[in-house]
Amino acid sequence: xxxxLFISDSHLGYxxxxxxxxxxxxxxxxxxxxxxxxxxxxLVGDIFDFWFEYKHVVPKGFIRxxxxxxxxxxxxxxxxxxxxxxxxxxxDYLKSELNLIFNEDYIDLLINEKKFFISHGDAxxxxxxxxxxxxxxxxxxxxxxxxxxxxxxxxxxxAKTWSYLSRINEKHENLYFQGEDKEPLIxxxxxxxxxxxxxxxxxxxxxxxxxxxIGEKTTLIIIGDWFKHFSYxxxxxxxxxxxxxx
Length: 246
Description:
It is globular and about 50 Å long. The protein has helices at about 15-35, 65-75, 95-100, 130-140, 140-150, 150-170, 185-195; strands at about 5, 40-45, 80, 100-105, 105-110, 115-120, 200-205, 210-215, 220, 230-235, 240-245. It is an alpha/beta fold. The protein has 7 helices and 11 strands.
């Protein structure tokens, strides 16, 4: 088999379409570099800083990336999309246009006889009670229907403001690796996933690239981001590696 490519947290659209254009172009270039080396592409959440599909409207922009994803899909590459905390509202448009497989929570699958658990990871910081409540509200079907009634101009501007405020209020220590004993995703994996005999556990969300062994068999990867670190992960059929383009 060929390999699998993992990308997360490019936050396209932030802080503006113009300023995120470089990230989009460089991401498209990365996909072009790997397209003959992979059978699978995993978009592990927050690819877009906001995505909500209204019945007849989708957010403008990102045409270079969407075109590249369409090309990869047409060439037989299987694309999985894991919902993040900024783009959990994919409904029918990207699924039908790109033939991608979307999951809001996690994917559990075998690739070349290796067992993978893949998730954006925002649902697993159980100490952040406020966010867990907020996440449940965002994922509630009634909340989604109410939001869909808002004019896109209003809805998208609300989302942009929320994204901006969340970055202002982010704790300083969250910008850095806190150590295995304090990182919520590593602790969650050790406490809840370690007995499931995964070979690889893959997360996004933390914006901090790392690769750690959490058991005799299991390797945990935090992809990092395509925002500050320009990092990604690649599975070559046997092992997985984290790279940065900077």
